[in-house]
Amino acid sequence: MQDTFGRTISYMRLSVTDKCNCRCIYCMPREGVAHHTHGEVLSFEEMAEIVRAASRLSVRKVRVTGGEPLVRRGIVDLVAMLSGIEGIDEVDMTTNGTLLAPLANDLRTAGLTRLNISLDTLRPDRYREISRIGELSDVLDGMRAYLSVAPAHNSAYLEAIATVHAALPNARLIGVFETAFHQTIPLKYRLYPIPYEWYERYGVMKMGYHGASHGYIARALAPRKRVISCHLGGSGSICAILNGKSIDNSFGFSLQAGIPHSSRTGDADLYIVPFLLEQGLSIDEIYSELGKNGGLKGISGTSGDLRDIEKAIREGSERAQLALDMMAASILRYIGAYIVELGGLDAIAFTGGVGENSARMRKMIADGLSFMGAKLDEGANACEKPSGLISRPDSAVEIFVIPADEEYIVVSDTYKFCTNSEQI
Q1: Nearest-CA neighbor of 213 among 14, 15, 405, 4?
Q2: Cβ neighbours for 164, distance < 8 A, ≥ 6 positions apart
Q3: In 3-state terms, what secondary structure has residue 11?
Q4: pLDDT tens for residues 390-403?
Q5: Which pLDDT score, from 0 to 100, does residue 169 have?
């Protein structure tokens, strides 16, 4: 059996819903997925019969997707039906982790080979149990699936993991993901106003990144209740931290979102893309420019390194000054929104290469918060390598410079994971 492009179809998706809208089995042309349209909700028996017919042609893998109806309609029974069909080698599932946590062992027994989970509402005490269904190859497959979202990051990670695994095949490999700290972001801040099915089916939502850095700030400033962490460097993000937990992050589904980065655009209207396509640019050209020649580099006309921008400002460059002003304005915009989400602000921390080394940027942010009583200690801020409190004693908000220590978070979380679990 082949798709309209002549490719062999070996993969079928089933979407378990209450209201079908002709999407129980749908087409994914890039992956060569079987397509069946109908107007009513299919029973599990009907789904199994379709899969059975498809398996006699060439389908070998089935992925089940869906939300709460998965559990209500008895997903363990469907998995057992599908895994028992002759010719079907794999049955995997993509859904919200909280829903399936109590069913993990039953799904494994029924024949589920892989579980891809949305981590947005997953309870930490359930995560370890579910994640053991997958092997290293499953984790790497998941990282490869998001190469288009984080090409510069995931490609380097995959290469490093492969190198270590080849050299030390029997060593334990522990992954501490940048997104992990942001699992506590509430859905009202995590979801985009897009068709809800895109979240359920494809996992499109705010992921949040720089988790190790923001997590370190949360620990360093405990027990302060309302904290905003500003990780500013070649890549930057702002994080709202309430009682030690992330409730919002300026990054989005990808690392392209948020404040202006050194060479990545940050926030931009997504309809710029189709407009530029109409002007004759190719999609590859657009993505390359947005990712490599946007941000501070695109506005300032410099390398995008803040040191070069500040040098250009001293030499009279208006574009360099504009780039700096835009970055500060974007940071303050996020801080303002997060103060509302947090219900106030007890402390703000600067970290990362720019956050730790640019007295000018820290002053621009502090000046922008002066209306709420934030007062910077000019002497402490001007130190060559400031560390610790840099606000005045009478400041309504504590202002800190805290050197980033992401390695500490990786090591401590790995140690905690190893010592608290019998099997990894």
Answers
A1: 405
A2: 171, 173
A3: strand
A4: 999 999 999 999 99
A5: 86
3-state secondary structure of 241: strand
**Distances 424 to 134, 174, 180, 198 between C-alpha atoms, Å:** 11, 8, 17, 32
CB 110 within 8 A of CB 79: yes
- Indicate whether 20 pLDDT > 60: no
Encode 64-85: b = buried (16+ Cβ within 10 Å), e = exposed.
Answer: bbbbebbbebebbebbbbbbeb
Give the CB-side neighbour count of residue 265, counting CA atoms within 13 A: 15
Which residue reads 């869906």 in tokens?
66
In this structure, what token pair is assigned to residue 7? 């490719």
Query: Cα(93)–Cα(75) distance, rounded to whole angstroms?
Result: 10
Evaluate if residue 152 carries a pLDDT over 70.
yes
CA 279, CA 265: separation in Å to the nearest integer?
20
Q: Is this model's pTM higher than 0.85 or not?
A: no
E strands, 119-249, where?
Answer: 226-231, 237-242, 245-249
Report the 10 Å Cβ neighbour count for 414.
15
For the ranges 34-38, 88-92, 360-364, which has the lowest average pLDDT?
Answer: 34-38
Q: Which of 352, 210, 372 is nearest to 362 (CA)?
A: 352
Q: Please report the DSSP string for 372-387 in residue order.
A: GT--B-HHHHTSSS--
d(CA 424, CA 408): 21
* Distance, CA of 205 to CA of 193 (rounded, Å): 10
Q: How far apart are the first and last CA of the chain?
A: 40
d(CA 8, CA 33): 9
Please answer whether residues 82 and 48 qualify as being in contact, where contact means their C-beta atoms are separated by less than 8 angstroms: yes
Q: pLDDT at position 131, please?
A: 37
Q: Which residues have a Cβ under 8 Å from the Cβ of 308 and sit 6 or more positions away? A: 300, 302
Residue in 304, 390, 409, 292 with CA at minimum distance from that of residue 354: 304
Question: How do residues 371-390 score in pLDDT, each as one tens digit?
Answer: 999 999 999 999 988 999 99
How far does Cα 240 stand from its chain's mean position?
Answer: 15
> Of 21, 19, 17, whose CA–CA distance to 44 is shortest?
17
Question: Which of 39-43, 112-116, 144-148 is predicted most confidently?
Answer: 144-148
Q: At what angle do helices 318-342 and 306-314 cross, to 10 degrees?
A: 130
Cα(135)–Cα(332) distance, integer angstroms? 42
How far is C-alpha 311 from the chain's CA centre? 34
Q: Name residue 64's amino acid.
A: V
